[in-house]
Known about the structure:
Blueprint: H1 13-34, H2 41-57, H3 65-70, H4 80-89, H5 109-122, H6 124-135, H7 153-166, H8 171-196
Helix pairs in contact: 1-8, 2-4, 2-8, 5-7, 5-8
Bound molecules: protoporphyrin IX containing FE.
Amino acid sequence: MTIHPAATAAESRTARLRAETHPTHERLDGRIMSLKPFDDRNSYLRFLQIQCAFHAAIETLYSDEWLARLLPDLQERCRLEQVRADVTDLGGEPVRLAAAEMPVIEGAEALGWLYVAEGSNLGAAFLLKAAREQLGLSEEFGARHLAGHPEGRGLQWRRFTAALDAVELGAEDDSLVIEGAHRAFEFVLSRVEAEATGAA
Length: 200
Ligand code: HEM
């Protein structure tokens, strides 16, 4: 019997997060690819600035004590430094968010934002391959933030999702996690639109 992804949606928090945000991920994937980020280094730089804004928006979560108790190796998972170095590698000035652009992320919502950030590293293998083959970039230059963990992306992801699934939350906080993931994807989408219209 084939188990449809939706059938497992009730089983774990991450399965539910995946199922609930899948349409938005598809939309984001499509919008990013429509910017043709791997056609040339200038287009790729626009993609980097989107990533830079996202990682800047969630920077403070990585030093949050409550989150650090729940999630393994939290501080080392922050990729802001790498994405800023990528922007600099390509001759850009890393985007800084004005105070008004910083999202307010409270309580359990933070877990949803971090799910999106970690998941984006899982999917980054494909992006790294394109950056390498089409633009000549690498984990040492221009595509640092797309690098996988030395022990493998899969293992790093499984450690994260196991911890996320094990966090005990009430129903209200559980919904906040999903809400946080939706807000994270919407934040990235808004940065894509800003880059697409040159407003960033
Ligand atoms: C063109 C851009 C993108 C492509 C082609 C892409 C592709 C992928 C792929 C192939 C996976 C599955 C990886 C696997 O199961 O081994 C994945 C997972 C994921 N990606 Fe993306 N991605 C893109 C951009 C993003 C961005 C910008 C974000 C968020 C900032 C994001 C968030 C996620 C999340 C949360 C998952 C994990 C889903 C889960 O299994 O629970 N992706 N992506």
